[in-house]
Every structure is written in C-alpha cells, then in structure tokens.
Design goal:
The protein has eight helices and 15 strands. With 291 residues, it is of the alpha/beta class. It has two domains: 64 residues; 213 residues. The strands form five sheets. A four-stranded parallel sheet has the order 2-1-3-4, covered by helices on one side. A four-stranded parallel sheet has the order 9-10-11-12, covered by helices on one side.
Length: 291
C-alpha cells in the first residue's frame, strides 16, 4: 500500500512506499493509495493530493485523524513510523479544547503492539490489567519508554510507581492546561518524587483561556517548574488557526526550549552556540562551566 502525507513530521514513516505530497517522477506499481491528513487545516491540501494521485492510480482514498477514525485497529509502521504505538484509542474526558472525544469516542483498549513511544490519549484510563500489559511490553524494548500521548496526573496512583521503576524511563508527559490542574500535578509529583526533571515533562497549553493574561500564564509555567516538571508550552489552535501576537509566540518559544526555560528559572546564561552554562569563577578569573 502507498501511503501519502501532506507534510513530513517526526512521526511520518520513512519506508519506500511513504510519500510526501504529489506523485514522484518514477511511479511505483499499481496498488492502493491512502492519503492521511492529521490536521484539519490540511484537509484542502489532502483533497488536492487525492485528485493528483487519482490521475495515476485506480484505488485512492483520503482519510486520517482530521476526518475521525473509521476503526480502532492500529498497525505499527503503516501511518506512523515504527517505534510509536497506540495501545488504546479515545478518552473519557470532555475537555473543550480537545478533538479526541468527538473523533475517537470513549476509551477503547487495543491489542498491545510493540513500541517504545506510547501515544495513547489517556493510558491511565485503561484497566489495570491493560496498563500492566503495556509496561510488560515496554520492559522488552531496547529504548527508554516515552509516554508522549500524556498521562492524566489526577489518575496517577501509588501502584503505578513500581511499574515506572521497572522499566527504562525516557519521558513521562503530563498536562497542566489551566490553573486548577496544578493541584493534580502536585499529586503526581509526590508519587514520582526522585525522578529527574528531564524525565518529567508537562504540556502547558497557552491561549485557550482568553481571560488568562501573559503574566498569569507565565506564573502557571513557573509553578509547573517549581513542582519538578519541565514545561512545554504549545499555543492552542482550533480548526480555524489563530494568529497569535509576538508576545504570546515568544512565551511559547521560551517555555518550549529546555535550555531557555532553565536559564529563566535558574538565572544561568546561554552561550552564543545555544548551550547553557553556569556562572562559576575559576582560578584564572574566567567564568562558565557547561552543564
């Protein structure tokens, strides 16, 4: 099967039958073509690619997350590169800023397929048996586990901690999308006490709450840091994209780049090459020790 994507991302498959954009000069043999669109703002381009590929292939279909899910089957490497896996679909929450409940429905557990990046929308809503099965799978992987889809802080329990301790941990991602989420994040931080900040990451959504000022948003970001998490600050984007001011874009940038974030919170400086250094007076009077 030929798979076509509107744009290349870090999640795009890289095998010989994965293409970006229009058909290549040298066409593969006749076979089904599936065009995948992730974001709603790319639907128009997806429709253009449908017409473009249909000139050469008989069986061409357009779909993907932007149109919702036709089923819950997940095949590793088909539309997302190998190493990334979904062990569940959907989410039981109804967050106003999230498309998942509408497109995927309530949580559904899938057959557990190997991968080290867990992209589930809300793994902790799954049954204990399923969660323990996921960790058993992660224990077989050669690379540290990354929970990139996110872990709901309020659902974290003490029995989860030994599961994390039993695998190679890369990154645990949580969310603090509003001021009220800080209490749950504090709860998660207590359970995960002792794990390095580099492994405890937190999505901090900016721009959804129109009543929150830039100053208040920055206070929320600093509170997340003080709870032991490394913030990542995406700007909220609905189906019709928002053009944010320079100030909001800078806030998002500064709190989405770990070196800049650390310099803000520790007072350390960033060298011209982008590396962080800690002020330190040496015997010869020079300062600067790479972290």
């Amino acid at each position: 099967m030929i798979r076509v994507f509107v744009r290349r991302t870090s999640y795009t498959p890289d095998d010989d039958l994965a293409y970006i954009g229009d058909p290549p000069m040298f066409l593969p043999p006749q076979m089904p073509v599936r065009i995948s669109v992730v974001f709603t703002w790319d639907i128009a381009e997806g429709k253009r690619l449908l017409a473009s590929w249909s000139q050469y292939y008989d069986d061409v279909e357009l779909g993907g997350p932007a149109f919702g899910l036709d089923g819950v089957e997940f095949v590793p490497g088909r539309f997302i590169r190998h190493g990334i896996t979904f062990t569940s679909r959907g989410c039981n929450n109804k967050c106003k800023f999230c498309f998942v409940p509408e497109r995927e429905g309530r949580i559904v557990e899938l057959e557990i397929k190997d991968g080290y990046i867990i992209q589930d929308n809300n793994l902790l809503q799954c049954s204990r048996q399923h969660i323990e099965g996921v960790f058993a799978m992660l224990g077989r992987q050669k690379r540290p586990a990354i929970f990139k889809g996110g872990l709901q802080a309020s659902l974290l329990r003490q029995w989860h901690r030994p599961l994390f301790n039993g695998i190679r941990m890369g990154e645990l991602w949580f969310a603090c999308d509003s001021q009220k989420d800080l209490k749950a994040l504090c709860h998660a931080g207590q359970i995960l006490y002792g794990i390095h900040r580099n492994k405890l990451r937190c999505y901090v959504l900016l721009g959804f709450d129109k009543s929150e000022s830039i100053e208040d948003a920055e206070k929320r970001l600093k509170a997340v840091w003080n709870l032991g998490f490394l913030p990542h600050a995406p700007l909220y984007q609905p189906e019709k994209r928002i053009q944010y001011s320079k100030e909001w874009r800078e806030l998002s940038r500064n709190w989405s780049r770990p070196a800049i974030t650390r310099s803000i919170m520790t007072g350390n400086k960033i060298k011209p090459n982008g590396k962080l250094y800690k002020p330190n007076t040496n015997r010869d009077g020079r300062e600067g020790m790479l972290l």
